[in-house]
Amino acid sequence: MTIPNRVTLISAVLLSICLIALVPGSLQFALTWTTPYLPVGNVRVENFMMLEGCYSLSLEIIGLVVLWTGYRAMERWAWVILFTILTLFVFPATVLPTLLKIHEGIYQWSFLLTVCTETRVGQCEGLAELHNSRVALGILDFLVMASALLLPIKAFFWKSFTRV
């Protein structure tokens, strides 16, 4: 096994784990299909969480299929599709809400350090602790996916590596 193949294998495994980690949240939204309207105060609002969950599941499945077909064969189009999923799906869903709350002054930058150092995923006692663990896991998931996608960039875009 050549070095580019090893690097893309490691990258594919990390990306697979991260994409599969997004599935429970998507399923939680998609399983609200039995409730067509959600009560918000005195008004009933159409359930868009179900659509978001279904769209998320489909993007995760597409990502896994592309990952284990074209990406493992070091096809450039597969890298571009996974980069698109990372920047247009994972980033807005996991990191962007936190950055917007920091911009609005709801969170402080020190909040991220506190969340990343004090959160214990298996020991969520309150709603705030659960929210903090989801924020931390979302940011961690994005960072791992970004580094796993950038790890084999030479194998995809530089000619110095030869394909076997």
* Helix/strand order: HEEHHHHHH
- Number of helical regions: 7
Structural class by helix and strand composition = mainly alpha
* Overall outline: globular
Largest sheet: 2 strands, antiparallel
Q: What value does the average pLDDT take?
A: 79
Count of DSSP strands:
2
Question: Which percent range fits the helix content?
Answer: over 70%
**Intertermini distance:** 9 Å
**What is the total number of structural domains?**
1
**What percent strand?**
under 5%
Task: Strand order, main sheet: write it out.
Answer: 1-2
Rg over alpha carbons: 19 Å
Which parts are unreliable, with pLDDT below 50 for 5 consecutive residues or more? 119-131
Describe what this molecule looks like in 3D.
- The chain is mostly helical and 164 residues long.
- It has one domain (3-157).
- Helix content is 72%, strand content 5%.
- The chain is built from seven helices and two strands.
- The protein has a two-stranded antiparallel ribbon.
- Helix 1 (3-30) runs antiparallel to helix 2.
- The longest helix is centred in the first third of the chain and has 28 residues, at 3-30.
- The protein is globular, with a radius of gyration of 19 Å.
In a few lines, what is going on in this structure?
Helix content is 72%, strand content 5%. The protein has 164 residues and is mostly helical.
List the helices and strands and how they pair.
Blueprint: H1 3-30, E1 37-40, E2 43-46, H2 49-71, H3 76-94, H4 96-104, H5 109-118, H6 127-150, H7 153-157
